[in-house]
Amino acid sequence: MRIGFFDSGIGGLTVLAEALRRLPDMDFVYMADTLHVPYGTKPKEDVKAYIFESVATMMNEGIDALVVACNTATSIAIAELRERYSLPIVGMEPAVKPAVEMNRATGKRVLVFATPLTLQLPKYYALVSRVDDMGIVDSLPLPELVHYCEALQFDKLVMNEYFKGKLADYDLDQYGIIVLGCTHYPFYKDILRELLPAHIEIVDGNIGTVKRLSALVNRYGIAGSGGSGQVQFMCTGNEPAYIDKMQTALAYLLEKDATTEPLQHS
Length: 266
Hints:
Helix content: 40-55%
Mean pLDDT: 92
Low-confidence stretches: 258-266
Order of helices and strands: EHEHEHEHEHHEHHEHEHEH
CATH architecture of the largest domain: 3-Layer(aba) Sandwich
Number of helices: 11
Radius of gyration: 18 Å
Structural class: alpha/beta
Largest sheet: 5 strands, parallel
Distance between the termini: 33 Å
Number of strands: 9
Number of domains: 2
CATH class of the largest domain: Alpha Beta
Shape: globular
């Protein structure tokens, strides 16, 4: 039994890494839509077409469950994917609800980092309207950050200047939590922890997504299927160099708790 993970690029690897830790008896297929990354700055209808084409290719690989490991893709296509396919499908959404609940007692605000397209979609506005009864959620589009991540740009000096510029107009003393609303963004969690004031927590939706995945595979009888954590990498551009980059990035995510070495790729 194999679980498919789909994203526009390497961002979904942050979710896959969590799944490998929590579901070591499964095997995985990871598809990156390298022909069209990034999604967050493109028109909605174009992105929807890219998603369905890539997922159809993954289905031909014989997956038993699917994780749409991309907040933008989830917002655009998750309902139609569930209508079209009968297998378990898990999507992503920015972790606004837990962030608001965590901040209720502090009176601090919540700042959501996300792609421009995610922040423009009705699904995001519906989420914030549903959970933000105190009016404490602000949103910050970071259109360049996916490009940085895809280029494996993790130089602290470069990224510190980028984040400082984006946050220059924000009084960070007012905020208690920053939500990473794109699966590419957790690659920068360590850099952000060093840059942000100590009182600000950083959250993402990865753990919650993998917990939902675990519950679904148990419900459908997919769990405990004799897998060994093997990962098959695919990309729409069929680029060997990009597959090599995905392997490098995943290894970095799995090992970074034990090392402070920066990620590099040649």
